[in-house]
Specification:
Strand order of the largest sheet: 1-5-6-11-10-9-7-8
Distance between the termini: 40 Å
Helix content: 25-40%
Strand content: 15-25%
Oligomer: single chain
Bound molecules: adenosine monophosphate
């Protein structure tokens, strides 16, 4: 086969079945938890005024380097737009625009875009599902968000996950801490990478987020924010931890977890898969962002949220050998050598009963249809030849295992199959 001249753009991929089905399954599993906890969906635009995303923070690489931005075609006043690199900023923009009743509990799902260096588990278009609660400072909201994400990872069967949490305090805590941190880092500036020296000027806290080798010694000895938290921030963090303890959710305190976005306050957390390479092992994360709505022109409104990376969650499932196809795999394939009338009727009947069923088209030979049945991944083939048609029966063949066959009544086929599957 000659290679097609067009390929999907660098850092993106066409996701075909069964991988696409598995991703959809993962999204649905999380969404069903969110719906049962009172969250409603927000569908916001894929692109926004770039200024909305700039609020994510001028010292984050997402803003400085990774935005897919463009101007629209308005000849007089072209608007500077960008594809969304994440959804929290859009949700807060929507909150400021519509002023819904609080607490506003919402979820979203869809692709995000970042101009990153592509590698395994790091794409320029990737899927996130997330949840946000706006309008309450209650630490129970932080606990709820973390527990829902944890519940999702457990529900799909992931075992090797770790929750890292930290508090970066309120503004007052961070002001106190920043002074100490700047002194510490400035004294050691000759040992820091050039990138971190730039970050130091814009947002010193974010230097702690550096993954560069040369920065690690300095970061390891840096003062810890927990020693600078105000009483209120300490109390907030204590309540979040107590909530997690009550729900028996295991976590690890990670005193240097500041996360990649500038807007966080108080609680920050990350879900790590121990079965993935460390550079791409974050499968979800989030935190509080009590000032973001205000920075987007809305009223002072607290917020807490989580975003789960669905592509990476799937990689984690694969490396833990989880079977995600069980709920999407075909159950029955109908093989009809009598002209196709029976295939039409049986497929329709079984689908109405919720049995995942396929059939072949084009009146092909028994051999060709059986091959198609094998390839389809279905558990059973239902075979109708002239003998079966005359005897008002069908033959049921187990396509896995030893290929056992039994004869079943055509009339009670649907009911009998439901018992079997
Ligand atoms: P963030 O918005 O950076 O906190 O990311 C939340 C989650 O999205 C991460 O934990 C990852 O699982 C996922 N994620 C972030 N960037 C990428 C990317 N470039 N490719 C795939 N997944 C990503």
């Amino acid at each position: 086969m000659s290679k097609s001249p067009f390929q999907s753009p660098r850092g993106t991929r066409d996701i075909l079945s069964p991988e696409s089905d598995q991703l959809r399954f993962l999204i649905e599993e999380f969404v069903s938890l969110l719906v049962s906890a009172g969250y409603g969906q927000v569908i916001s635009p894929m692109f926004e005024d770039i200024a909305v995303f700039n609020r994510i923070g001028e010292s984050t690489e997402i803003v400085t380097k990774e935005m897919f931005d463009f101007f629209d075609k308005d000849p007089k006043r072209p608007q500077h737009l960008a594809l969304r690199p994440e959804l929290t900023a859009s949700i807060c923009r929507a909150f400021a625009q519509h002023r819904p009743i609080t607490p506003w509990k919402v979820w979203y799902a869809g692709p995000q875009f970042r101009y990153e260096k592509p590698q395994a588990g790091r794409y320029r278009q990737f899927l996130q599902v997330g949840a946000e609660i706006l309008g309450t400072p209650d630490p129970a909201a932080d606990t709820e968000i973390i527990s829902l994400a944890y519940g999702f990872f457990r529900k799909i069967g992931l075992q090797e996950i770790k929750i890292l949490i930290n508090s970066i305090g309120d503004n007052e805590s961070r002001k106190r801490y920043n002074e100490e941190l700047v002194n510490y880092l400035t004294e050691r500036s000759s040992a820091l990478s050039e990138q971190s020296l730039m970050t130091l000027k814009k947002n010193p806290l974010r230097v702690l987020d550096s993954k560069r080798d040369e920065d690690q010694d300095v970061i390891a000895g840096a003062p810890l924010i927990e020693n600078y938290l105000t009483e209120e921030s300490k109390e907030h963090f204590k309540k979040v931890k107590e909530g997690l303890d009550l729900l028996e959710i295991p976590y690890e305190i990670s005193p240097r977890l500041v996360r990649g976005l500038d807007y966080y306050t108080q609680t920050t957390f990350e879900f790590v898969s121990l079965s993935l390479e460390s550079a791409q092992n974050a499968i979800g994360g989030g935190g509080r962002y009590d000032g973001l709505v205000e920075s987007l022109g809305g009223p002072q409104t607290e917020g807490i949220g989580v975003a789960i990376g669905i592509d990476r969650t799937l990689l984690a499932c694969q490396s833990e050998n989880l079977d995600l196809d069980a709920q999407t795999r075909l159950e029955v394939f109908v093989v009809d050598t009598t002209g196709g009338r029976e295939a039409l009727l049986i497929a329709d009947e079984l689908r109405q009963l919720g049995i995942r069923t396929d059939r072949s088209f084009g009146g092909r030979s028994m051999k060709a249809q059986m091959k198609a049945a094998d390839r389809s991944g279905a558990r059973f083939a239902i075979i109708i030849g002239t003998d079966e048609l005359e005897g008002k029966e069908v033959t049921l063949r187990d396509l896995r295992g030893d290929g056992q066959q039994i004869t079943m009544s055509r009339e009670s086929l649907g009911r009998d199959l439901l018992k079997l599957i």
